[in-house]
Every structure is written in C-alpha cells, then in structure tokens.
Amino acid sequence: MGGSEYNKENGTLIIEEQRERMSLDHKTGYAALIGRPNAGKSTLLNTILQTKLVAVTPRPQTTRNRIFGIYDRDDAQIVFQDTPGLLEPKDSMHQFMMREAERALEDADVAVWLIDAIKGVTDREKIISQKVLASFSMPLIIAFNKVDKVPLSERAALQNSLAGFTFPESHRFEYISALYGDGVPQLVETLLDYMPLGPKLFPPDQLSDRTTRFFVEEIIREKAFLQLKEELPYSLAVRIETMQEGPNLTKIQATLHVERDSQKGIILGKSGSMIRSIGTEARLALEELLGTKVFLELWVKVSKGWRKKEGHLRDFGYQE
Ligand code: GDP
Ligand code: MG
What we know:
- The structure is a single chain.
- Helix 7 (about 205-230) runs antiparallel to helix 9.
- The chain is an alpha/beta fold.
- It has 10 helices and 9 strands.
- The strands form 2 sheets. A 6-stranded mixed sheet has the order 2-3-1-4-5-6, sandwiched between helices. Strands 7-8-9 form a 3-stranded mixed sheet.
- The site of magnesium ion has 4 residues, from helix 2.
C-alpha cells in the first residue's frame, strides 16, 4: 500500500491493511430465503447451519420475525434471513409478515426462492413471481426442494412449468432436499458465487451463545402463538431472564410480556391451563433443540405500551 505510515495513536492504517488483505479471499454477504409456508425454508437453514436452531413446524406461517442464521467458515460468512411466507396480506398479521419478507429482500445480495417440488408450480407461485420477483434486481436461485420425493425424470417438467414466468436477469435453477441434504453443498457454493468479497460481519466466536438464546425465545414465542391461535399476535414478546446450561439439564426462566391485563388473562387461561400447555409444548421443543432435559419456568407480565417504546422494542428483538 502506498504511504502506509502507521498512525501510532490509533493504528488505523494497520487495521485497514488487514481488512483489505482479508477481503482478498474472504466472501461475505446476505442471502434471503423466500417461498411459501412449508416450502422448507427453515429446514434448509437448519441443514446449512447444521443445527436444529430454527423453528420448524408442519403448520404454516409460524416463522414470525426475520431470523438470522449465520453460516461461518474460514473463507466465508453468509448471513441468512428466513423470511415469513410471502402471502397475500389478509390481515394485519399477514401484512406484518409481508413487510418483514420485503425488508429481508432489500438487504440481500442473493435470494433463494424455494419451491415445494411435491406440490409443484401453482397459481400461487405465479403470483409471487409477478408481485415480488418481477421487481427484483438481485440474483435469484430457484431451488426445487423435497426432490427426495420426486423422481429424477420429473425435474425437467418442474422447470418447464415456470416457462413464461418473470425472473431477474441473473437466475439459476437448483434441485435440493433440504431435509436430507442432497444438493445443499452445491447450493451453498452457488450462493457464494454471488457474494462480494469482504471481511466477516460477525466474530465467529460470538455466534453460538447469542443465537441459542434468540432461538429459545423464538420457540417459546412460536408455541405461545400456536396455542393462542392468533389471539394476540402483535403484543407478545418473550425474554429469557436466566438460562443455565448443564450437560443433562438446562434451566430456563422466561417472561412473556404483554400489553394489557386482558391479554395476560388470555395467556394464563382458565386456572393457568393455557400457560401450562404453552410451557409443555415449548419444553418439548427446547429439549429437542438443546439436547438436554429442560426445566422451564414461564412468567407473564404486563408491560404497558412496550410496543411504543423504541428501546423496549429493540430489547425484545423486534427491530434491528
Ligand atoms: P418453511 O415454512 O418454509 O420454513 O418450511 P419448514 O422448513 O418448516 O418445512 C415444512 C415441512 O416440510 C416440514 O414438515 C419439513 O420436514 C418438510 N420438508 C422440508 N424439506 C424437505 C425435504 O427436502 N424433503 C421432504 N420430504 N420434506 C421436507
Ligand atoms: Mg419456517
């Protein structure tokens, strides 16, 4: 580097040089996963990250917030965003999910559109293509998922059924089984083809702990959401108070924050029956996630107007 005088006071130049050297062979970028509910987005993220950290359920529309999963290896870092299903907005909850999905797309260097190859290409895919993908300028990978259930001979037909659809100029097709991993390493390499050179965005040694807590909260929130059947979709936030991880047992205390006394009543249920069944469902899922027995203690607290307080919002993970 020309004129590389070392600034003794803050070491700026050295840092710049290190960054540049690192960037020569390190790729960093954002990838958005899009697709209808149940296409297999969470499963794919789990397989790529080789964890069971993303909430996967056979019931659609349970992925609420944008979930970051960070794929890290020596020469690359990919920040994944698992978008809630792209749906026609029917109510405010759906609108919220659409907005989240669109926001994930704004940040991305590349997008993966997962299509359930068992269901095939339907009118719904056409709507997604016309409404969302048509305005795309970023590269798009169209990945047919669940090919473990689809004979090889039907692949060409799947691709043909997309004839006439609008795609960004730069797009490719892949065939994968998110569940069993077939085609997934290839997909990761394809993603990296589109990623710019750059230094790591997140220090690798800080990834696991933060993400574990985040996903624990996410799972509790998801179970509450499923049990409550959309009775309070907006005003529920979950926060871990304590989490003690042992080899065989994890003790977790968490608080469910709501805005009104009436919502607290709904969550508690008749003589506590609702909070108990949320707790049971969450505990079972957490035991699977963490691989230990889980002792879960849930509290419900009314935090009036928490949604309006920005600091609070960020606290609860609803804002970047
Ligand atoms: P999401 O809503 O797009 O996040 O979908 P999920 O990841 O939650 O997956 C929905 C369902 O499809 C789950 O029951 C998964 O086990 C199943 N699934 C996902 N990927 C595959 C796959 O490659 N093959 C098969 N056979 N099933 C899959
Ligand atoms: Mg999901």
